[in-house]
Write a structure and sequence with these properties.
By secondary structure, the chain is mainly alpha-helical. The protein has 49 helices and six strands. Strands 3-2-4-5-1-6 form a six-stranded mixed beta sheet, sandwiched between helices. Residues 119-150 are annotated as: Disordered.
Length: 961
């Protein structure tokens, strides 16, 4: 089709393609209503590229996992041996080329990125190719054999990938390709999507969130009139043409189809036009009316073609023969340009297929699917046969339901959780027995949860009376509802989540393994909701104790999880939680230690480590075991990268930023925070969703502009959403900020609400700040009680940091010269540990004490050390407090001048540089950072230039953490 009036859109596409020829990459979504010209623009882009891959979404294929991605990658699959092993294995299972465990979506996505970004040779031939709406994979011949240029780009230059009708891709493929689009950077790849939208053109972007989008509207009046006059063979009255352009909204498909049906008199202006004009959703009704006038045999052929969309032509012909029709019966529709000729028949536009299928009588649709199922007999087509059987069923049918359930399990084995949910949902609809039907609905809800379709999971569960379910099925339903509500941000989900998990544990009955998993989940959800949870810690502890009663403590606790001894890892976790909840620091730490040692066991699998990482971090915090917590997070980061578990990796970065902020190691906290932001963008998280993941503890060290207002607003949001853990952590951060700014009474009030004096518990790490705040606000009694609790914690844990902050607190409370000894002991315990912040604060407090003792030189030395430490991590709030103390000693204290450093590495460049320094190849670094090797090469060249090095050996010498 000739393009009319699309100069701006064509210029935008030309700019993307031109940038790709220079090595840059981009993704773009063309969004618009049906018939607005998205495909024409995509064809224009293809005509400007010499290396293109093209697929179109096919609605009947949307329930088959990774079907679209497989079609797109077919020309490249011969080169999958070049992929890292984990990516190759995941891709082969996803594409049905090998058997194996269900593949991780993001490993498949990264494999697709690596293949699409790989080297390619210019095509030797550009012969005839199938049309883009025929459901095939449209590509230029060529391979990955081209030589690499020094800058990492392939000799053939850019590659264009087009995904039209993206709304009909299977969910796994669309998620994978959206991930690819968000990670493109320096591969010379352009990935274009055509997406049909109705109603609000700027509405919810869905799975393509985060990919740049361009709204494609109707043609401008002059262009619409030009198109209308171009497609008719008679004179068109200008006023009538302008009226038609307005009536159709400039929709090119509506204009061209309407023009073909109007008479010369109507176009000339002497006869009225039909109203309303067929645009948007009315186009489908327009086509349906046309189809209704075809002979019965033509309608049957069209219906079979619609039901067989994406299937082979011989299947269509054979099914048609069984219904007494033949390819020749399609002639009226072909003459009308409704579809192409020889099978496989392809509809000119998807709306035409929808009009055929949606307008057919239900009995006729069932007959068409029955005919197709009868001749779909190959084992490779078993999924399609099951789906045709399901569509042919006119009532409950256990045989078909059971086959769908088997197909669901097969889809799940390929990582197709969305397809599994769809198959199970249809299986439930066809199940005669009410109990079995409910069980299949619960399984479908579980699959929807695994697919990230949380609202769908809740909708399925709402159709089940949970009180009538047998125990284990009810337990599964409760667990699924709990997690689905939490993930949809439902306030009651956070509040009731732990309670539902406890109810699930009871429902699982004698299945102690599942019951224990449910209570561990209750612990995690209760830590998230904390004081806003519907159940208390003692209630959870009682259930944990019940499920671990009779367990024998192992002789070698650190190996219990690996060896699978009675109780297992979850048993140790429950025992530790119950013991600490009941006995606190006085008697509960040994059980917590055993559980943490089991989580830290090097023999623990990656999946188990990631599943219990949050509990491990919480237990390490209780024990003040900084080394154990940091080691756990580093192992979890490695495991998440190795297995492609990006949501777990995101959680690692979140916990990492929180952990390092607590320790005052703000540069490392920045690394995790920046990595988390990049990863969330790649996962398609919106800016609004990302607000919940902000780090108040990092912000308060830095005193960002408007901090108190933004933190105050966050507290309200956390309370509304029942996120008690974040609410408490934010209050702790405000207490630290108040201390730093000398607002001691406010700090005391805030921190007192987090602890129960006389019974040190979960927020024991607030005690050192409470001692300082209470003492300096004149509340010596509270300060002494807090110090006594801190002594209990220190005696139980005995780690250098807790001993250091205890000595620092004792120094504050001491009125004699013994304070100096306590300060020196505090600094001795803390120096060399990871707690940069506590060490710097010990120097600050010691310096303040020395100034009051009029020991000016000694005070200046301690305060100078503190200032240097605070400024090294940009802890501005404490740095300013230190400067005030130094000014009181006399002399000038300069603020550091932070000029823009053009040679400073970005967080992404720094990550690439560290891995290259440590010996990683480009491919290994790419797999580690979820990038393409081309992007790694791009960043590495910038690192070399900024650091003034020319080799990895020089990088090892010049780069330091």
């Amino acid at each position: 089709m000739r393009l009319f009036g699309r100069e701006a859109e064509r210029a935008a596409l030309d700019a993307l393609l031109s940038a790709a020829r220079s090595g840059r990459s981009a993704g773009l979504v063309l969004r618009g209503e049906a018939g607005v010209g998205k495909t024409a623009l995509l064809r224009y882009a293809e005509s400007r590229a010499t290396n293109a891959l093209w697929i179109s979404g096919v609605e009947p294929e949307s329930d088959f996992p990774y079907a679209a991605l497989h079609r797109l990658l077919i020309p490249l699959l011969d080169f999958r041996s070049r992929l890292p092993e984990a990516q190759r294995a995941a891709l082969e299972v996803a594409c049905g080329l090998a058997d194996g465990p269900p593949p991780d979506l993001y490993l498949v996505s990264l494999a697709a990125l690596t293949l699409l970004a790989g080297p390619r040779r210019r095509p030797a031939d550009s012969g005839s190719r199938p049309g883009p709406r025929e459901g095939g994979s449209r590509h230029d011949p060529g391979d990955f054999g081209g030589r690499e240029r020094p800058d990492g780009m392939a000799a053939a230059g850019m590659r264009l990938c087009v995904v039209d009708d993206a709304q009909w891709l299977d969910q796994e493929s669309l998620r994978a390709l959206a991930f690819v689009a968000r990670r493109l950077h320096a591969e010379g790849v352009v990935l274009l999507f055509g997406l049909r939208v109705e109603g609000d053109p700027g509405g919810d972007p869905g799975l393509l969130a985060g990919v740049p989008a361009r709204e494609i509207g109707g043609l401008a009046p002059d262009a619409a009139v030009a198109l209308l006059t171009h497609v008719v063979d008679t004179t068109v009255d200008r006023a009538r043409a302008e009226h038609i352009a307005r009536a159709t909204g400039g929709n090119p498909l509506a204009l061209t189809d309407l023009a073909q049906e109007l008479t010369a008199d109507q176009l000339g202006g002497s006869v009225a036009l039909p109203e309303p004009a067929p645009i948007g959703s009315r186009l489908e009704a327009h086509y349906a009316a046309r189809i209704a006038g075809y002979p019965a045999a033509t309608r049957t052929w069209l219906l079979l073609a619609a039901a067989n969309a994406g299937g082979p032509g011989d299947r269509l012909t054979e099914a048609a023969r069984s219904l007494g029709v033949a390819p020749g019966d399609a002639a009226p529709a072909e003459a009308d340009r409704m579809l192409t000729g020889s099978p496989p028949s392809a509809f000119r536009h998807p709306l035409m297929r929808s009009a055929v299928y949606g307008g057919a009588a239900p009995a006729d649709r069932r007959a068409a699917h029955r005919a197709l199922s009868a001749i779909t007999t190959a084992e490779a087509d078993a999924d399609h046969r099951a789906w045709h059987l399901a569509a042919a069923a006119d009532g409950p049918d256990e045989t078909t339901a059971a086959e769908l359930e088997r197909r669901a399990d097969r889809a799940g084995a390929r990582g197709g959780h969305t397809a599994r949910a769809t198959f199970l949902t249809r299986a439930a609809e066809l199940t005669p027995d009410p109990g079995q039907r409910a069980a299949r609905q619960v399984r479908a809800a579980e699959a929807s949860l695994a697919a990230g379709a949380y609202a769908r999971a809740l909708l399925l569960l709402d159709g089940v009376d949970e009180s009538t379910l047998p125990g284990p099925v009810r337990g599964s339903a409760l667990m699924t509802r709990s997690l689905a509500e939490v993930n949809t941000g439902t306030p009651d989900g956070q509040r009731l989540g732990a309670a539902r998990c406890l109810a699930a544990a009871q429902a699982f009955g004698d299945d102690r393994a599942r019951a224990r998993r449910a209570v561990v989940q209750a612990i995690e959800l209760a830590r998230s909701a904390e004081h806003l949870s519907a159940v208390s810690e003692p209630e959870i502890a009682a259930e944990a104790a019940r499920l671990t009663a009779g367990d024998r403590p192992p002789a070698e606790p650190e190996t219990r999880a690996a060896k699978g001894e009675p109780g297992g890892l979850d048993g140790l976790i429950l025992a530790g939680y119950a013991a600490f909840t009941v006995d606190g620091y006085d008697g509960g730490l040994s059980a917590v230690r055993r559980a943490l040692d089991a989580i830290l066991d090097p023999g623990l699998s990656d999946d188990a480590l990631l599943a219990r990482m949050v509990v491990g971090v919480n237990f390490a915090t209780l024990l003040w075991d900084d080394a154990g917590k940091i080691g756990l997070l580093r192992r979890a980061e490695t495991a998440a990268r190795r297995t492609g578990a990006l949501h777990s990796l995101d959680l690692v970065h979140y916990l990492g930023a929180m952990t390092w902020s607590l320790l005052g190691e703000l540069n490392e906290a920045d690394r995790h925070d920046a990595a988390g932001l990049r990863l969330r963008a790649a996962l398609g998280m919106t800016d609004e969703q990302a607000q919940v993941w902000r780090h108040p503890e990092l912000a308060t060290w830095r005193t960002e502009p408007g901090l108190r207002e933004s933190v105050g607003a966050a507290l309200g949001v956390f309370e509304m959403l029942n996120l008690g853990g974040l609410h408490a952590w934010t209050r702790l951060s405000l207490g630290v900020l108040d201390n730093a700014e000398g607002q001691y009474a406010s700090a005391r009030d805030t921190l007192s609400g987090l602890v129960e004096l006389g019974r040190p518990h979960r927020y024991a790490y607030a005690l050192p700040d409470l001692v300082e705040a209470a003492l300096r606000s004149g509340d010596r009694r509270t300060a002494k009680l807090a110090a006594a609790d801190l002594a209990v914690v220190a005696n139980a844990c005995g780690t250098p940091r807790v001993l250091g902050v205890l000595e620092r607190s004792r120094a504050l409370l001491t009125t004699s010269d013994e304070a100096e000894d306590h300060y020196r002991q505090a600094i001795g315990h803390l120096t060399g540990e990871v707690s940069h912040g506590d060490t710097a604060r010990a120097h600050l407090l010691y310096g303040e004490w020395l100034r009051r003792q009029r020991r000016r030189r000694d005070a200046r030395e301690q305060l100078g050390t503190a200032l240097e430490m605070f400024e090294s991590v940009r802890a501005e709030v404490f740095a300013e407090r230190t400067r005030k103390e130094l000014r009181a000693l006399g002399g000038t204290v300069l603020h550091p001048v932070r000029e823009r450093n053009e040679t400073a590495l970005t967080p992404q460049e720094a990550a690439v540089a560290r891995l290259a320094r440590d010996g990683g190849t480009n491919a290994e670094i790419a797999a580690n950072l979820f990038l393409s090797p081309n992007t790694v090469d791009y960043h590495l060249r910038k690192v070399y230039r900024k650091l003034g090095v020319r080799s990895r050996r020089q990088l090892r010498d010049g780069l330091h953490d």
